[in-house]
Design a protein that fits this description.
Blueprint (H helix, E strand, L loop, with lengths): L7 H26 L7 H4 L1 E7 L6 H10 L6 E5 L4 E6 L4 H15 L4 E8 L1 H29 L6 H30 L5 H31 L5 H33 L5 H31 L5 H6 L1
Antiparallel strand pairs: 1-3, 1-4, 2-3
Length: 308
């Protein structure tokens, strides 16, 4: 039997190598700009402008109009049949709006109709940020409580909950770290879709971890005389094909959307893509090894090699 959990020092090292550049990027960005990555108007405040066109349009074409006018951080999405566009940009006054409307009409014709224009204040963005942080904290507490309750009949159920939360934090750090690097290099901005992707990644990661932990719970009474690391390793191998099949199916869909999807959703899909990869890795190579290391008081598996 191939013993995955005994190689845990390499998994922890790889996680450190992946997380460290992202942490450095967030620290640098925080020092330079005051934030770990750039924020969209969902958090900083700005304007939401809904426009109707005579014919369906491409969001990238409308965004080019705003970029040419000096509003490079503008986000454009189309709704319905593609003839209605929602534009999110930094705060503008009436004179700036008139100038932008003239540029839009020059590009798309005079049949452009303003359906709605509203300002989003920074206070709303702050509320969204606080709600997101509370959601992550609440998720961590709920996961710990659920696993302690579900695994109450096994030894040390609290360790299962904490191990799952550590794996979840790993995925948060990987996702936000890579996003911070992309924010510095490519100007990515965190918006509501970023939070959606982050919370989805967390749910996938925890679900996969629970599947493995549940198999450990089932196997523990069957192999009572075996070391815990062997039981965990057996359980991991038994669920490995299921975990990979589920996650690979999702990754194939994400890859297709990255290649053929619209430009307006590619940042969201990219966050989902590398976040799911991190979630798959952490549930297999972090959560279970952390649990084994905690149970055996042997973080890197050195005691086993010395005894051998």
């Amino acid at each position: 039997m191939f013993r995955l959990v005994e190689q845990r020092k390499w998994y922890f090292l790889l996680s450190t190598v992946i997380i460290l550049p992202g942490l450095l990027a967030m620290i640098y960005s925080t020092i330079a700009t005051g934030l770990p990555f750039r924020l969209a108007i969902d958090f900083t405040g700005g304007s939401i402008w809904e426009l109707s066109f005579e014919q369906p349009i491409q969001p990238a074409q409308l965004r080019d109009v705003f970029t040419d006018a000096g509003y490079s951080d503008t986000a454009v999405t189309t709704v319905g049949d593609g003839a209605t566009a929602q534009v999110r940009l930094k705060a503008i006054d009436e004179a700036q709006k008139v100038a932008l409307m003239e540029a839009i009409e020059t590009r798309f014709g005079s049949g452009v109709i303003e359906k709605q224009f509203a300002a989003v204040g920074p206070a709303i963005g702050q509320e969204v940020t606080q709600a997101a942080v509370l959601a992550v904290v609440a998720a961590a507490l709920a996961i710990t409580f659920f696993l302690v309750l579900a695994f109450r009949k096994v030894a040390h159920p609290f360790r299962y909950g904490v191990s799952a939360v550590i794996a979840m934090v790993h995925d948060i750090l990987v996702t936000t770290g890579i996003f911070s690097i992309c924010s510095l290099l490519f100007g990515w901005e965190a918006d509501a879709l970023f939070l959606t992707a982050l919370l989805t990644v967390i749910s996938f990661s925890v679900q996969d971890t629970i599947v493995v932990f549940d198999r450990i719970r089932e196997n523990a009474p069957k192999y009572r005389g075996e070391p815990f690391s062997l039981v965990a390793n057996r359980s991991l191998l038994e669920t490995l094909h299921r975990s990979l099949a589920t996650q690979l199916n999702a990754l194939f869909v994400m890859a297709s959307l990255l290649l053929f999807g619209g430009a307006t959703i590619k940042q969201f899909i990219a966050v989902m893509f590398y976040g799911l990869i991190s979630g798959t890795y952490s549930s297999i190579f972090n959560a279970v090894p952390i649990l084994v290391a905690w149970e055996e008081r042997d973080l890197f598996g050195t005691k086993k090699r010395q005894m051998a």
